[in-house]
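Tokens for chain A. Residues wanted.
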């Protein structure tokens, strides 16, 4: 009694839009015989997409349509029922239209376009929108309709001229038909609304219409009549442009035509006064007649005498710069131009013809540089080397072709910039090339860490950053035993030497500069572990001395250093001895003065006291210094005899210790030791 589905059920094929969809049947049962009636309701599933009658539609909408206008759209069909049927519509985003979805009496949906923002064909000629129909299934099914909207033109734009004012000039004898100016206007509308017709404005004088003609289609303004500068020098012509719309748009412009004078009038001579008869004894310079000359032409056409001024070579050539600094990288390609010396001469003709030459101050300049005599282009004839010469100075002379010629000198400095073309060169230890001598450095066993054993000395012929050398330990017998300073090249012990270390070590040091690209070289250093140097040195008696061409130079350099050092030592020793002598002499004077406060006059120094203004000529003093302080007072004792100074005791501050002076004048007697 099981009821089975014998084939696939299609609800839309059985019932269409009818809902609910049911199928009736009868069942016969035997023994006993019975008849049963039954019904099966076919439920809908979302197995159908909404469908538009066509995949796209086209609408024509005038740009003059006001906002709020509605435009019905084709509806989509969905054979499903209930929630699986068509439920809504959606419109792609745009600035002009929105979508209004309406429901019919049978529950079906339809959509209308609503104009929200007015259209402008000149801004956008067409719009492309997408209408999407959606059912209520999960997930929903959809269909799309392409909407193509053509914006129909309305005569809402007036013509516009490219310029509001046009200017032209024409000679007064210009023949008829000559083009004076061409005006142009444009209209953003289409069809007749955008077709333009040119014409004279209504207020254009009749005289202008007689002299000029305007092409209504092209806007070309041409000469029609005979122009006369002496009659009218400037014409103001007003033109207009109209479109062919029902209500035409109009634009206006102005054309200024300047008439250029032509020498078409002969001078007129008028005799304003004549003195006649003239006496035969009239003196030279007597006025005979007064003449008046007029010419209707203007400017040069109204003159009769033309004086031409001939040129004199009174201007020296002038350059935009008094000097040039040129930077050229070394290893350049020979024959390249490096500078163009520019100069000008305000004179005319031959006086302004310039020639360029290099002044041969340095004879090497002529072999390295060359200049084009006609245009002043400076060429580099050879390849330069920064390590050979860094700077070249020269003078370029610019001379004109006058008689006598005038010249200007321009300084040119050429600086050779460095390139990294030299690898580091090892000075110590010297590479073993032509000699069997082995440079061995010695370090004692048990040497502690941080001990400097030797130093790799190298130079780089380049300059600046290209000559900055870094040192790296590339290879070693025992890499853990020695280290090298990155920038100094000094080789240190990295740890304390042990008894089990090898007796001899070979280090390969990599020397690399910082150029781009970097260049490198290497140095091999041999270090022996021994107590004494003689343990590791070979038998030098068996080694033939190398013929070093620089040994004499080294000897003289060492000798010069020794001589200068000796001279400096002798000089310093002499100065020290002299200072010591002066100190001992001063000390003896101090010691000799301690025996008594005053001492009798002995050998003394004479001071011109009269000229110094201290004492009168007939006055005598003895001056003594105390030995107790370096800031002793200078004590002056008066004599027994009366003197103009009376009994006043004079004191002079800040005396020099250990020295005494006697001030001598003409006195009647000498003071006693007690005094």
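Reply:
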């Amino acid at each position: 009694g099981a009821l089975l589905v014998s084939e696939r059920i299609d609800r839309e094929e059985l019932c269409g839009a009818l809902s609910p969809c049911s199928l009736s049947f009868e069942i016969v049962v035997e023994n006993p015989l019975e008849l049963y009636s039954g019904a099966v309701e076919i439920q809908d599933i979302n197995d159908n997409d909404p469908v538009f009658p066509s995949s796209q539609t086209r609408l024509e909408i005038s740009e003059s349509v006001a906002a709020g206008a509605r435009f019905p759209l084709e509806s989509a069909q969905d054979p499903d029922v209930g929630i699986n049927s068509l439920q809504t519509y959606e419109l792609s985003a745009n600035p002009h239209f929105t979508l209004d979805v309406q429901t019919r009496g049978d529950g079906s949906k339809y959509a209308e376009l609503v104009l929200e923002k007015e259209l402008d064909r000149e801004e956008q000629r067409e719009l492309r929108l997408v209408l999407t129909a959606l059912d209520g299934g999960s997930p929903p099914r959809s269909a799309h309709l392409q909407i193509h909207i053509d914006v129909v033109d309305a005569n809402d734009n007036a013509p516009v001229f490219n310029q509001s004012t046009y200017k032209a000039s024409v000679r007064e004898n210009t023949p008829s038909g000559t083009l004076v100016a061409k005006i142009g206007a444009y209209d953003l509308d289409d069809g007749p609304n955008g077709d333009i017709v040119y014409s004279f404005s209504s207020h254009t004088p009749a005289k202008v219409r007689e002299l000029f003609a305007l092409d209504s289609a092209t806007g070309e303004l041409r000469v029609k009549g005979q122009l006369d500068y002496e009659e009218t020098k400037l014409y103001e012509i007003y033109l207009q442009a109209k479109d062919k719309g029902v209500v035409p748009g109009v634009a206006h412009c102005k054309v200024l035509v300047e008439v250029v004078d032509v020498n078409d009038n002969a001078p007129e001579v008028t005799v304003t006064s004549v003195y006649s008869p003239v006496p035969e004894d009239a003196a030279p310079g007597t006025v005979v007649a007064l003449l008046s000359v007029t010419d209707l032409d203007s400017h040069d056409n109204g003159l009769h005498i033309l004086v031409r001024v001939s040129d004199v070579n009174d201007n020296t050539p002038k350059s935009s710069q008094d000097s040039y600094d040129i930077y050229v990288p070394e290893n350049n390609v020979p024959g390249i131009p490096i500078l163009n010396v520019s100069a000008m001469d305000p004179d005319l003709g031959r006086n302004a013809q310039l020639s360029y030459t290099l002044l041969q101050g340095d004879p090497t300049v002529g072999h390295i540089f060359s200049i084009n005599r006609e245009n002043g282009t400076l060429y580099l004839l050879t390849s330069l080397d920064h390590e050979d010469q860094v700077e070249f100075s020269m003078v370029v002379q610019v001379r004109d072709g006058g008689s006598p010629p005038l010249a200007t000198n321009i300084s040119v400095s050429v600086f050779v910039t460095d390139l990294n073309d030299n690898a580091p060169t090892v000075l110590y230890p010297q590479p073993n090339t032509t000699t069997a001598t082995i440079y061995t450095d010695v370090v004692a066993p048990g040497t502690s860490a941080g001990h400097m054993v030797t130093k790799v000395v190298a130079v780089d012929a380049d300059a600046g950053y290209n000559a900055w050398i870094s040192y790296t330990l590339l290879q070693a017998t025992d890499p853990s035993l020695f280290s090298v300073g990155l920038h100094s090249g000094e080789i240190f012990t990295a740890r304390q030497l042990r008894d089990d270390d090898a007796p001899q070590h070979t280090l390969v040091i990599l020397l690399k500069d910082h150029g781009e690209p970097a260049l490198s070289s290497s140095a091999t250093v041999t270090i022996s572990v021994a107590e004494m140097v003689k343990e590791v040195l070979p038998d030098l008696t068996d080694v033939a001395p190398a013929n070093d061409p620089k040994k004499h130079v080294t000897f003289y350099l060492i000798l010069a250093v020794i001589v200068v050092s000796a001279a400096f030592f002798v000089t310093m020793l002499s100065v020290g001895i002299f200072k010591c002598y002066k100190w001992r002499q001063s000390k003896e004077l101090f010691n000799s003065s301690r025996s008594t406060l005053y001492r009798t006059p002995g050998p003394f120094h004479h001071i011109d006291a009269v000229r110094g203004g201290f004492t009168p000529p007939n006055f005598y003093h003895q001056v003594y210094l105390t030995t107790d302080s370096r800031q002793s007072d200078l004590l002056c004792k008066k004599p027994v005899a009366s003197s103009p100074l009376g009994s006043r005791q004079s004191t002079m501050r800040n005396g020099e210790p250990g020295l005494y002076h006697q001030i001598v004048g003409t006195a009647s007697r000498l003071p006693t030791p007690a005094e």
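The helical segments are 11-15, 206-211, 363-368, 551-592, 609-612. Residues 536-546, 593-675 have pLDDT under 50 and may be disordered.
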